[in-house]
Amino acid sequence: MPKGKKAKGKKVAAAPAMGKKREAEKVVNPLFEKRPENFGIRQGIQPKRDLTRFVKWPRYIRLQRQRAILYKQLKVPPAINQFTQTLDHQTATE
């Protein structure tokens, strides 16, 4: 290396300043005990889940829900719908 030039390397980040340690990390209320739940085999009963999505609904309910979705998809916003009412070529040239 030529004299006067230093080799450039990666700079190491300074260590974070270790100030005061936290005296009280969490205030624990003695009235509420922490009881870990274990839902393994032959142990705690699992909580009831909402299974409405997985129910086989009656046919008329499925149809009315599908119909509502289809009608929502058919609606066209007014800004686009205005172009459906344009004049045809014959009327425009008169």
Features:
single chain, 94 residues, mainly alpha, 3 helices
Describe this structure in words.
The model has no long low-confidence stretch (mean pLDDT 81). The chain is built from three helices and no strands. The longest helix has 16 residues, at 59-74. It has 94 residues and is mainly α. The protein is flat and about 85 Å long.
Share of helix among residues? 25-40%
Q: What overall form do the CA principal axes indicate? A: flat
Strand content: under 5%
Mean pLDDT: 81
Largest sheet: none
Multimeric state of these chains?
single chain
Number of helices, where a helix is a run of at least 4 consecutive DSSP H or I residues: 3
Query: Which structural category fits the helices and strands?
Result: mainly alpha
Query: Gap between N and C termini, in Å?
Result: 87 Å
Order of helices and strands: HHH
The stretches of 5 or more residues where confidence is low (pLDDT under 50) are none
Rg over C-alpha atoms, rounded to the nearest angstrom: 35 Å
Number of distinct beta strands: 0
Outline the fold blueprint.
Elements: H1 59-74, H2 78-81, H3 89-93
